[in-house]
Amino acid sequence: MKWLWALAALVPMLSPPAQASGLLAVRFGGEHGHPTTSNPTAIYFNPAGMSLMGGTRLMLDGTFAWRSLTYTRDPGAIDNVLADPNVGTGTPEGDGVAANSGEGHLFNLVGSPFAAIVTDFGVEGLGVGLGFYVPFGGSSSFDQVDASDAFPGAKDGPQRWWAIDGTLRALYFTGAVSYRFPDLRLSVGAGLNVVLTQMATVRARNSDGTDHLVSNGTIQEGRALIDVSSVDVAISAGIIWEPVDGFYLGLSYQSQPGFGTSKLTGDTTLVFGATPSAAVEPTPSEFYNGWPDVWRLGGRYTVPKAWEVRLFGELARWSSMYEHCLLNSTITPRACKGDPPPGKIVLVPRRWEDTFALRAGGSYWVSDAVELYLGAGWDGNAIPDSTVDPGLYDNDKVSVAVGGRFSLLDESLIVSVTYTQLFYPDRTVAPRQHLPGATTGDIASLGFSAPERDPDAAGKYEHAIGVLDVSVEARF
Amino acid sequence: MQWRAAFLTAVLATTALGAGCVDPNGKLDEFLERSEPFRAQVATGACEGRVDASGDYLLAIATVVLPTAPVLFDATVTVDTTVDPWAITVAMQPLAVDGRANVGDVLTATGTVDADGRFDLDFGEITIPGAANAILVGTDAVATLTLAGCTNTAEFTCGTADGAISSPASIPLAGSTYGAIAVDGDLTTADPVALCPTE
User: Fold this and answer.
1) What counts of helices (H) and strands (E) characterise chain A?
2) What CATH number matches the domain at A2-475, 3.20.20.150, 2.130.10.10, 3.30.565.10, 2.40.160.60?
3) In chain B, which residue's Cα lies nearest the Cα of A269?
């Protein structure tokens, strides 16, 4: 598998922003990335589509996105406010509260590649493809802020308990095959994916999962740096039926990488409280993450070189993201369950929910060589209020896309450009309740166990993403 | 064909794009640098010579997790001066946070005392009962534990505590400290001291 890591190293920070439901980030192919497509993005959206066209086709697609996220932490989310900064464990009034609430912001530019080659090897109705792309992932790098020198962690912003800098992504290397049965007007396809999942993130962290800054005047705020990865296998399959000329119906399925919860291995570096810098060492660790499986269903009607309409939907089973569990892999036995879970380093409740998405679009050919298109869609929110945070953010969203596809050099080169704007309504999450006398927010009423404590990410979220997708398809 | 060469060049160029500014390691290093003045400078005290420190002590371990909530023990120190190097045995009885009653099993370790008074004690894997867990009262804690210090006087000994908590969470203990003050009789009123005095 060394070649996988070498190829991954060529794209050190490529990671799309989460722009569809959950962390599903597929916008490659623009408006022509869907479950009845015939271009090489079919290798992901529906491998049956690879046999809808013959010949050899090489496609390079770049998704370039800007992402803006402003998170304003509600001071009411702070676990324990201290009247006297030198007595007790918590966040001192005044400068301490300012250091643990307020506005954190990011504006990131990211890119994500898609590359695939599809050929029929001269056999009519056959489609064989190889591809590389990043369908899942999100990355974020928050701005630093002006903050009191008395709280050295505060410079990383009030969102630091969930994200300072980080990437979580899945790189797919896919081989797929498709065949079209002309008499049945039916195409079938299947693919095998080798999935390289990587996570590298640093966040503020206390050993007890609180957001306490000090303990009797001594620094309490710490850090957790997690650097883990895994290689898993996933499969895909799909069918496309053309009941009448120009009318295509497609259904496809992409399995979870690893067919369940993936185990990523690597190191975690913990800095708790006043740990001397010289004592900071990485700990071998395991991280458990559950990507979703995804169903897609869609249809399109095409009058060649004239017009086309498209409608498709997507079900992503994000309920697979129940929790994020990080264990010390030197401890045996270890588990994410138990009270307490043996070997637990961090246990973050996710409790994500399955999501639906619906997109519609249409094309109009102004000439044989120039196709213009529009699209619009709605994507559901995977993350409930109880677990949403600035590190892995989602919300309901509406997308509007505009673009064109241009045939050059006697249709041997196809260039497509699509811009998609995603509109997220602002989201405000109320602070957890504080039980009388408690020095932490109440998580039991949210259904979380004590080992799942994480700081309260209550506050206001303002989010927007714009995506420019550019692709070039060469037909040989 | 020329356009195909250009196409392949574009493939490589696009692949190289996107090398962003996400740098988790760098952000951790920056935090460590900013917070260095706030970090523990663990004073171990100078080892000035060995003494027979046999006796009863109120021993307090201040973990780096929450140094303001030391875990307390009724410790019996036995030094055998008839062998060379001297042998030291420490038997620690965990004390409840409320009332300092004995709870759980006695933890014992044996080591040697160097000529300058230095000793290391390895307690192996220990369990602190929930009643004695001052960090998370009510929750049993499992950890490996070593103590390193000096027998400078028979009234007070101090040094560093190391190891790792494995339950309820995996937490390294490096940077933790301990102190033991001699007590005569009543342990419930003695003030614990959990670190060496700074110069």
Assistant:
1) 3, 23
2) 2.40.160.60
3) B28
